[in-house]
Design goal:
The chain has about 150 residues and is mainly alpha-helical. The chain has five helices and two strands.
């Protein structure tokens, strides 16, 4: 299973991110490539506890849905609605300069994967408390999902 804990998986994600441009065309959803970069950056900020988020974990979300999302050999499906807090058209950060916003995302990803991070038991808005390993798996899957959205 791929995870941001592995150097090669993180390098793959960064290479795919750098292949995107502001005019990259989406395959599904409504976000532009620039909005998607912002969405990912905001999501990593939530994970780091730097951005407020209204949590709504349910027993089902903390158990079965979390296990399926993180460990089942299935790709995340298109069409899952983005939460307002990380939606660039709602309460999320507004896009400014593509290159600067991409650099911000890369910096957040570096901090998220740094050996000095402390994600253990930090609560995911839907999945509830997660281990460091689960957060790093989530990070890979979330970025991969959106890169596939843009064919990257």
């Amino acid at each position: 299973m791929k995870t941001l804990a592995r150097r090669q998986d993180k390098a793959e994600i960064l290479e795919r991110l750098r292949a995107l441009g502001p005019k990259s065309v989406r395959r599904w959803g409504r976000m532009s490539a620039h909005q998607m970069i912002i969405h990912l950056a905001d999501s990593f900020s939530v994970a780091a506890g730097e951005r407020p988020f209204r949590a709504s974990p349910t027993l089902l979300g903390r158990t079965l849905v979390k296990w399926i999302a993180l460990y089942a050999p299935l790709r995340w499906p298109p069409g899952v609605r983005t939460s307002p807090e990380v939606d660039a058209e709602r309460q999320g950060t507004r896009p400014t300069d593509f290159a600067a916003d991409l650099a911000r995302l890369e910096a957040l990803l570096e901090a998220f994967t740094a050996s000095t991070r402390s994600l253990d038991e930090r609560s995911h808005p839907v999945f509830g408390p997660m281990s460091d390993a689960a957060w790093l798996r989530w990070g890979y899957l979330h970025v991969d999902h959106h890169l596939r959205q843009f064919g990257a």
